[in-house]
Amino acid sequence: MDVTRVTPRDRRRLTAVAAGVTAALALGGLSTVSAHGADSADSARSATDTRPTAETTPIGFGAGTTGGGNAAATTVTSLDAFRTAVTGDKAKVVKVSGLISLTGQVDIGSNTTVLGVGSGSGFTGGGLRLKESTNVIVRNLDISKPRKPSDGITVQKSTKVWIDHNTFSADRDHDKDYYDGLLDINHGSDNITISWNKFADHFKGSLVGHSDNNASEDTGHLKVTYHHNWFSDVYSRIPSLRFGTGHFYDNYVQGAETGVHSRMGAQTLVENNVFRDTEVAVTTSRDSDVDGYAVLRGNDLGGAATEVSRTGSFTTPPYAYTAEPASSVVATVTAQAGAGKL
User: Fold this and answer.
1) I want to staple 183 with a disulfide (CB 3.0 to 4.6 A). Which of 7, 84, 206, 288 is the partner?
2) Which is the catalytic residue, given 13, 129, 139, 237?
């Protein structure tokens, strides 16, 4: 490689690859790593047999979410058919077959399961919105390049949500405000689990609580669990959490400027995660007038700094879960997170 043509982003990717290889060797089972740190299929099979597998029901704050349950499934291949199928609050299961282009967002009614068919099914150019909805599941979708002001998924004034095994992506070739967030949760939403997703190539990952000035609506709400997600070359907001309560465990963060950002009094438990090629893994003291709180335990920071100005009181989540050790997180997450892995 001509070193005079290596860009800063190239160096970040090469560093991430090297870090992934180092972690793989330490685990003793991962032999090859791609530019995003993913192990090969053979390597995945050689990892420990005791690592977690996909859940059939959500773990964490979103526990008890059932979506459309056992309702008969409707398969759609067009945007118009999808809009019609997800409207209303009756129990429904909507399967999306193929990649659908859209502008803006489609509103999802309550008691709904949206499920991508196979791999590569989903939406590009915009996304989904859960507004004043309850009991919604979104799984196995590829959601890419949500043009501003649309997020890949917006959860607004909604409760009981499970977002699982999706791939969210954009690119880093445009200005940071060209696209909007990949997954934003706001306006007092509550009881949400974000699990086994891949977030890639974006500036603004996942924002929980949209404004410092929204305390009256958000305080006591915004309870969110993130587990077994893979953040690859996402610049920040992994997540950014205001006012609420966040449990961030067994996630793999690779190539970030800042990872977990707790602010405006938010309580965050950061547990058994792996950070690679990341400058600041956790901060409680940036960009808001009021700092947040954080408790860190069992993480592999990979040399990343931490900026914890206030230690939190949220140490015991009010639900059953098992956090695997950080030493196996890279193998587990790179093998199983994202769409097409169910």
Assistant:
1) 206
2) 237
